[in-house]
Write a structure and sequence with these properties.
Helices cover 39% and strands 23% of the residues. By secondary structure, it is α+β, with helices and mostly antiparallel strands.
Length: 74
């Protein structure tokens, strides 16, 4: 179950990820409700497929590169 609300002049998407954890995504100030609905549909599709990753959990490129180089050292 997800919803779109307007808080402090911005659209906020409130949803649960595939692990049951509640998440919020605050959209840019000039976003329309139509764009917010489109973003919500994309998030729901990712959650349904189980491929949603919270933005804070996505590793940085430098971390991925370091792990890759460590595996190729031998």
């Amino acid at each position: 179950m997800a919803c779109i609300t307007k808080r402090r002049g911005r659209w906020v998407i409130d949803f649960y990820d595939q692990h049951g954890k509640r998440r919020w995504k605050t959209l840019k100030e000039d976003t329309t409700k139509k764009q917010a609905r489109k973003e919500l549909r994309e998030i729901e599709e990712k959650v349904e497929r189980g491929s949603y990753i919270a933005p804070k959990k996505v590793p940085k490129f430098s971390e991925v590169a370091k792990m890759y180089l460590n595996t190729k050292k031998a």
